[in-house]
Structures are given as C-alpha cells and as structure tokens.
C-alpha cells in the first residue's frame, strides 16, 4: 500500500530518501528548510570513496592524538566550555569510537560509500545531473616520510583500500600543481569528488520533477497521538503523514526535543573557502595531511576545507579559521598568491558518540524514522542511506550490517 510520507531535512540524505520513497510509489512531502546553505554539505569537501570511509583521519581520534589540541595552528579545536557541558557525550565518544573501526563498522561504511558512488553515476547519466563529479582519485601528501610510512603500513595491513605510495618526484608527476613542494604521497585511485552545492540544487530539481512536494520552510512543532506522530507544523501548516523521516543533520536534535527525546549529536564544525574562476588548479583532490586541509577542484573553482571543531550550535567562527585555510592554500599552490577567496562558509557535522550514523525506526514512536548522524560522511553516504531509509519505511529489510545503526542504541 502506498503511503503519505513526510521527510524532514534538506541535506543530501533527506534528498535521496525523498527520491527513493517517491520512486517506490509513495506520496512524498519533503520539508527541505528555508536555506539550502544551512546543510552541512554546503561547506563540505564533496569527497566520495572507499578509502575515505575508514578509518577516519587519525586527528579525529582525540583520545590518541591529544598533540593536535596543543598545536597553535591545529585543524582540531575543542571548546572547553562545550566539552565540560557535554562530558557524557565525550566520555561515550572515547569509549565507543572503536565501533566504526570494527569489522562490522568498516563493512557498513564501505557498503554505504560504494552504493552511493554507483547511485551518483546513475543520476548523472539518467538526469544529466551537473555536479562536477570526477573519478580522478585522491592524493594524500606528507611532509615527512615517517607519517606516510605509518599510514601506508596500516593500509597494507587492512588490505581493503587500493593505494599507491609515491616518492616526491612521483607525487609531482601525478599532480604538477604542487610545484616546488617536495611532498611524499599516497594515491588512492578509487576516490571521487563532486560539488556538494550543485548536488543539493540538482536534487531539489530532480525531486520536483519526480512529483515530490518540496517545502522550503522549517519545522516549528510536532503533534503526537499516543505512540504515533500525527503531524508536524511548518510555516503554520499542519503537515500530516503516515510515516515521518527525520534526516535534518544537527537540526535533528531540535526536532528530537519536540518529541521529548534526546538525540546525542555533537556539532563537529568544518570550515571552507572557495576560489572561483581560477586559471590554475589541481586536477584531482589533494589532502595536505599534516595541515588537515583538503583542496578540491570543482569545475572552474577550487575549494579548501578543514577543521574538526567541537563547539556549540551558536558558535561564530573567527576570521583566523579562514585565514588558516588561505595560508595553507597559498603556501602549497603558489598561483594563489595574492588571490582572495570568493566565498567562505561553515557547517556543523552531526556526530554521534560512536561515530556511526543513526538509521531506522524510532524505538519510541511507531511511525517515526531516523536517518541522520553521518558526521563528516553525509555526502559520501547519502545515496545509499536514502535508499535504505526508503526500504525500511516501505516495510522491507536491509542488510544486517546496518543493524548497528539502530536508533534504539540511543533510546530514540
């Protein structure tokens, strides 16, 4: 039986969930929010690939990498006031983050990423989706041989991700834009990248053309009827549905509180700058490992992203964050000397204490589902995550590898 579904959340997970729910014959209302720029994806690197699925960059493992917190120019920042007021979250983060590096955690991440890569290519071919997607691989660079050796040994031991170790001369041959920089590197041939801003815009177009009602407003309140959700209120209108899916990133915490629930997401802030219409740029994404900065070519633009910064939702990033990005970019790419970024932005990655997404039916309300908490991998997991959410809402089963994403672990 076809249903009336309400999807809340304007990011890529909400977009793909809406699409697949409509494709399976449901009537879908997608509450995408007032500002497309509010999605964390707007400021993201737009990287997609199995090598980026796991392990997370080692500087995000705060327990084992406290050295980052004492570097003046560190891309890892921790607001002490925020930490003290969220000690239970950080305690759980320290205890359970290993889950994402377990065999089941790795497999689930890999399946989400490779599934999304396939879906993105299908959309580009089927809908002519213009998102600057490229399959050139990714180059991870290092100033020192020691750090590169450590990571390459870990990759070799794991045996899952394809990679190639490069000496400085080979690194420069692979990416001439690095110029005089003598950097060693690891090349990941299976990685891809896209323009996340174009992805968000294109998915709104495709969803409208698919017959989805796109509501560009926010949620104001919710109405329950016992153990079921009756409707949500957006711009004063009561929007009813048979099933409700919340995929609103950090906004999911606010919506959860409307249901009397506490979803344990912490905002991992990331910042970006974009150079438009640059005459020179690298032809593939480059990670400057010790600086924690990614440089990503997107059509005629060049974007730089960095920082994993735990702060409150009302945090206002200081100018020095963007100056750091600008300095690293001009140091590595001399053709950017004297060129000012055309724009800068920041976004809040929704991070769970165990670094795993939350996907499935609510343990509290029969017709409420969650698809959120992807942290830094929202774009990377979006297509497959949306497909899985639609299967669950339609009453189907998904692979057991995703059981560890169940909302019941957080009692939501």
Provide an overview of this structure:
It is a single chain. The chain is α/β, with parallel strands linked by helices. The protein has one domain (4-137, 190-410): FAD/NAD(P)-binding domain (3-Layer(bba) Sandwich), CATH 3.50.50.60. Helices cover 31% and strands 25% of the residues. It is built from eleven helices and 20 strands. The protein has helices at residues 12-23, 50-53, 80-84, 87-96, 103-127, 145-158, 168-174, 196-209, 251-258, 319-332, 378-393; strands at residues 4-8, 27-31, 47-48, 76-78, 138-142, 164-166, 184-188, 192-193, 213-215, 219-225, 228-234, 237-240, 243-246, 266-275, 286-288, 293-298, 301-310, 343-351, 358-361, 368-372. The longest helix has 25 residues, at 103-127. This is Glycine/D-amino acid oxidase (Deaminating).
Question: Outline of this structure?
Answer:
With 412 residues, the chain is an alpha/beta fold. It is built from eleven helices and 20 strands. The protein has one domain: FAD/NAD(P)-binding domain (3-Layer(bba) Sandwich), CATH 3.50.50.60.
Distance between the termini: 26 Å
Structural class: alpha/beta
- CATH homology superfamily name: FAD/NAD(P)-binding domain
Overall residue-averaged pLDDT value? 92
Radius of gyration: 21 Å
Task: Provide the fold topology.
Elements: E1 4-8, H1 12-23, E2 27-31, E3 47-48, H2 50-53, E4 76-78, H3 80-84, H4 87-96, H5 103-127, E5 138-142, H6 145-158, E6 164-166, H7 168-174, E7 184-188, E8 192-193, H8 196-209, E9 213-215, E10 219-225, E11 228-234, E12 237-240, E13 243-246, H9 251-258, E14 266-275, E15 286-288, E16 293-298, E17 301-310, H10 319-332, E18 343-351, E19 358-361, E20 368-372, H11 378-393
Parallel strand pairs: 1-2, 1-13, 2-9, 4-17, 5-15, 13-20
Antiparallel strand pairs: 3-8, 5-7, 6-7, 10-11, 11-12, 14-17, 14-18, 15-16, 16-17, 19-20
Helix pairs in contact: 1-8, 1-11, 5-11
């Amino acid at each position: 039986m076809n249903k009336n579904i309400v999807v809340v959340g304007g990011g890529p997970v909400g977009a793909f969930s809406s699409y697949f729910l409509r494709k399976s014959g449901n009537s879908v209302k997608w509450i995408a929010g007032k500002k497309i720029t509010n999605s964390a994806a707007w400021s993201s690197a737009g990287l997609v690939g199995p090598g980026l699925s796991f392990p997370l960059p080692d500087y995000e493992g705060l327990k084992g990498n406290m050295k980052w917190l004492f570097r003046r120019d560190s891309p890892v920042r921790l607001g002490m006031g925020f930490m003290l007021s969220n000690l239970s979250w950080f305690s759980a983060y320290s205890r359970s983050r290993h889950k994402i590096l377990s065999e089941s955690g790795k497999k689930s991440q890999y399946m989400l990423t490779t599934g999304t890569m396939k879906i993105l290519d299908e959309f580009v071919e089927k809908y002519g989706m213009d998102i600057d997607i490229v399959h050139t691989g990714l180059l991870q660079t290092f100033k020192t041989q020691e750090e590169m050796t450590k990571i390459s040994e870990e990759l070799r031991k794991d045996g899952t991700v394809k990679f190639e170790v490069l000496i400085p001369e080979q690194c420069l041959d692979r990416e001439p834009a690095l110029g005089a920089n003598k950097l060693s590197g690891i090349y990941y041939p299976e990685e891809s990248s896209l323009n996340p801003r174009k992805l968000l815009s294109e998915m709104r177009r495709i969803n409208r053309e698919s017959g989805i009602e796109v509501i560009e407003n926010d949620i104001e309140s919710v109405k329950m009827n016992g153990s079921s959700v009756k409707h949500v209120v957006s711009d004063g209108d009561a929007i009813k549905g048979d099933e409700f899916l919340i995929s609103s990133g950090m906004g999911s915490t606010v919506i959860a509180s409307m249901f009397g629930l506490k979803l344990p997401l912490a905002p991992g802030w990331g910042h970006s700058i974009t150079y438009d219409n640059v005459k020179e740029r690298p032809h593939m994404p480059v990670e400057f490992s010790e600086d924690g900065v990614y440089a990503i070519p997107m059509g005629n633009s060049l974007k730089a992203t960095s920082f994993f910064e735990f702060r409150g939702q009302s945090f206002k990033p200081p100018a020095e964050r963007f100056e750091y990005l600008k300095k690293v970019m001009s140091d590595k790419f001399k053709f950017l000397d004297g060129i000012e970024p055309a724009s800068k932005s920041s976004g809040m990655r929704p991070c769970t204490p165990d670094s795993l997404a939350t996907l499935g039916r609510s343990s509290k309300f029969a017709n409420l589902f969650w698809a959120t908490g992807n942290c830094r991998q929202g774009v990377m997991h979006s297509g497959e995550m949306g497909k899985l959410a639609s299967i669950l809402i339609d009453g189907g089963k998904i692979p057991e590898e995703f059981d560890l994403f169940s909302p019941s672990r957080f009692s939501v």
